[in-house]
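Human:
I keep going back and forth on a fold encoding question. Comparing notes only helps if you start from a blank page. Show me how you would write down a chain together with its backbone fold. Write it directly below this note and I will take it from there.

Assistant:
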Amino acid sequence: MTTPRLNAGRFVPAVVRQSHGLQRFMLLLGFGIVAVFVFVAVFAPWIAPYGFNDDRSGGVLFGTQVGPSADHWFGTTVGGTDVLSRVIYGTRTALEVIVLAVVLSALVGVPLGLISGYLGGWLDRILVLVMDALYAFPSLLLAIVVSIVLTGGSSGAFGGILAAAISITVVFVPQYFRVIRSATLSVKSEPYVDAAKVVGVRTPRILGKHIFSNVAQTLPVIGTLNASEAILTLAGLGFLGFGIEPSAAAEWGFDLNKALPDASNGIWWTSVFPGTAIVLIVLGVTLVGESLNDILNPLLRTRGADTTAADEAELAHEYEELEGDDVTTTSTGLVTPGSSNGEVRVAALSLTDLAVTFRTDAGGVHAVNGISFDVAPGEVVAVVGESGSGKSVSSRAVLGLLPASAEVTGSARLGDRELLGMTSSELQPIRGDQVSMVFQEPSTALNPVYTVGWQIIEGLQAHQKISKKDARARAVELLDLVGMPDPERRVDYYPHQLSGGQKQRVVIAMAIACDPDVIIADEPTTALDVTVQAAILELLLSLRDRLGTAIVLITHNMGVVADMADRVVVMYRGNIVEQAPAGQLFAAPRHPYTRALLDAVPHLGRENGPGLVDDNELVLKVDDLVVEFPGGLGQPAFRAVDHVSLEVRKGEVLGLVGESGSGKSTIGRATVGLQQPTSGTIHVSGNQVSGLSDRQLRPLRSRFGFVFQDPASSLNPRMSIGQCIAEPLHVQTDMTQAQIDAKVASLLDSVELGGSYAERFPHELSGGQRQRVSLARALSLDPDLLIADEPTSALDVSVQARVLELFTELQQRLQFACLFISHDLAVVDTLANRVAVMQHGRLVEIGPRAQVLANPTEEYTRRLIAAVPVPDPEEQARRRAGRGRMLTDIS
């Protein structure tokens, strides 16, 4: 066995702890400086030894200054005034102007930014034009112009300070407006805002509770930065003679102006002390600003556990027998797949006692606990397990892609070379050349500002001496190899111009560009439709066969494992609990966790789904629905839904299936008024809901609920779980707070969470728990119709199974009609009474579940069903052989 070697990253946690200590020190320093200045400003009349304009020359000829002394610690000015007193009173002036300017700027700029970003239209265009015009002026020049206009009507200390604050406010308003508007444009498209619209929340509450609360975290930072700028702007105005009237208040900029002639005469104190005050207060405010966002952010609040721990806690009661049940196997040699003579080959990649710990101030989080497995050349080893099991962490440790807070021990050998302990410069020639990685989300793995060809060429030129012309030709060849349509043209496409499946093919092309020995594929098909997924899997297998590449497949999709893997490594809580050949593991799993994982996987064709409910009353009627989106400049409109008609009855689940872009979600959004139809009608419980304004639709919104795909983004992160569930009750009912609280507790009990969860925030719950909360919110008004848009696609299989079981129990008990939108045919087979199949906006087939999924009449439906991987290696091998090359043209 290889002796465990310590990664260089082991010594980083001490540096991290020093960094955290430095951050705390800087925070305390900033607050300390600001606190001193605030104290001085508040108690200026008692602290200052003299008045800020008192003449202390004692009859001495004007122009004679006194240096620092016992009577005048900071000396006196040319006018005989005490410098220390002027600095102290100047602090009060500065803070008064800062507070007024920042508050007035926020009061004007923030509401304008919220309204402009949320409502859009002509009002947005006008406000943007005005704010851009103001922003184009140099800030100091604009403040001077406003000051000239205002000071003619101001008098006295307050009038001078207010005029100065307003002068600076005009400069700051466009900054608040631009930042808040930009944040609003981003937040208003979040699912939790749509969730608020679905239940009829009015615009003022959406702006305040859902948008402002989620953009307000930028305000402390903007305010402190503006406070620093306000000090400098005020000093600039005073220095140039456009500031506060000298007889009204002491001001540091004015004092610096008067100190200019002194500098050439060796009189330093009249400028140094006001200048130092400016520097110190700017420093203190800036240090505070850099820390306030973290301090005021409730998303950083924890209860001693993160969502990974919540997932584990949710699973632990089912797998108590895991503790002490060690069936881990460790191999010292591997049998080549397909070999009949038992030939032992050297592993392409070998992990031995690999452990990963993330150091935190509170201790350490053990993500991987001494795992060992090998992968041979030409072998596909699947590493499976649920979120938080350590699958991705272990693979990233091999390539040195973990953060600095990670401590890695053990061994990771590529052939006969040890990877752990290598520096980044030593790993650079290995990454992408000998070991490459296919990341889970291609949209984030590809740089949006460069063409896909440029990104492939970059990797080629990093490892090979190749001309740009030859590299481009190789990029085209690679795109053709991975099945990209028209690769000569699409090599110049940007990522946003490609579909999800095409982007994943680009990522694979980058991974195989240098013919690596090992490919680590981290959930390569999770976000893809079944047909595209099937094509990607076929591609990876063909690469394995042609290049002899070893593949480490990280996934929680057991159907994909059955389709591809030679051997399977099962991980749970950072440990390997079982590893075996794929056929053996699926046929006779040894560990209870493996058995539970396989039992949770829905199997298309083996589910005993519900029958028909044709006699029940009609709840949803969609008649000849058309939805079009305007095209780009010179482009025709895009028809997302093309003359679709369907019905859903009380107590019925209609499964709406199809690939991405088929129009499924658009129908769901149109049903609840989130998207207006171009033509056609939609009726819910006999009431027409299509074509109505938000005001007209609001009384009808209690008739339907909506469960969104991503449970994390569909819950407002700044509202507690109780507040999220209670919001529909506040908007649509006249219930008292006590009645609402009781209803929330009852709903939480109905989704098997309990009333104690009401005080928690979404980030403190696991994915499955968050989706249960979404379900409770959708059912809070006892709706007639529930729209569920891919509600389980983001969940692990066992969590998905529990959510589906709960959904089925609630649906049977409450008898709501449900439009269940999904691309997972196995899940639909479990739940649906009837199934509707969509392609390119059209409804191509609809009928009873058993008929559509077992004996489809349309070729497209048959192709969808053939592409679904099933958790059975033998059956999957037969399906793959029968499928042939049916999927090669799918992109």
About this structure: The first helix runs from residue 12 to 42.
